[in-house]
Amino acid sequence: xxxxxxxxxxxALVTSPLLAQEPEAWTATQDGTPIRFGTTHQIxxxxxxxxxxxxxxxxxxxxxxxxxxxxxxxxxxxxxQDFPHIAGLAQLGVxxxxxxxxxxxxxxxxxxxxxxxxxxxxxxYSAQFETAGGAAEFRAYIANDxxxxxxxxxxxxxxxxxxxxxxxxxxxVDTLLEQPDLFDDYISVSPSLWWDDxxxxxxxxxxxxxADYSDTRVYLTMGxxxxxxxxxLDTLLAALDAVEDAPDYRYVDRRETETHSTIYHGAALDALxxxxxxxxxxxxxxxxxxxxxxxxxxxxxxxxx
Length: 305
Prior knowledge:
Elements: H1 17-20, E1 39-45, E2 50-57, E3 69-75, H2 83-96, E4 102-107, H3 112-115, H4 123-128, H5 135-153, E5 156-165, H6 167-178, E6 185-189, H7 195-202, H8 204-208, E7 217-222, H9 227-242, E8 248-253, H10 264-276
Parallel strand pairs: 3-4, 3-5, 5-6, 6-7, 7-8
Antiparallel strand pairs: 1-2, 2-4
Helix pairs in contact: 7-9
């Protein structure tokens, strides 16, 4: 095995004439121009009785397009949370034609343990996690403050989607069961279904059988977390299979390839491809330079005109 050793040299000791010179050629551009990647809104929430942050990424041409867009609501959507990389996937869809353009709405969270967990019934969890149990109120904030603001401000289509990972994934499964009509498409990555001794998953059969899920789609995945994380997900999957009118769902087992810290981005890409895929882009006939022995005088397919 080769070993590479990095040598750390304090900058103050480097005396190269090149480094010591004044960088005259580029000093004028050091201020630069900030790159705009979305818009931040401060919403005064009547539900939470405080000001909250929501970040929005729009597809290019949104202002003049006749098209109405599916909105992807992102839990943990702060600029220091998951907003940049999920909005980046929406931008990737635009430039690669893999899936339909989306509006991404990043809903920033604060005390995640409070906002993303349902109130626990098991006293062990109440004692250990004193601030937990605010998921119902946070969901009401999304339903009564965030969604109306977005739908009044942007060109939205008929579908709403929600995405999140870990505790946010738990919140999404809980929302699927407790308020299924809030969204149409649910993307839950490595949901923390260990919460409250797996209580959310345990009530899945009852809840899934009590609501209309005919137009609901669910994407589920988990990495190598194992333990009560996987056990809770297995219970949820069994419920989805057992209930006759359960939502259409896709489960991707990533135990052999991903960890809790590596799973999110790739899984999100896979989910968007499944939910909003478009036909492969038609590049037309093969140009001459992609064919062995082709010539510019040949036709576009490499044959003589």
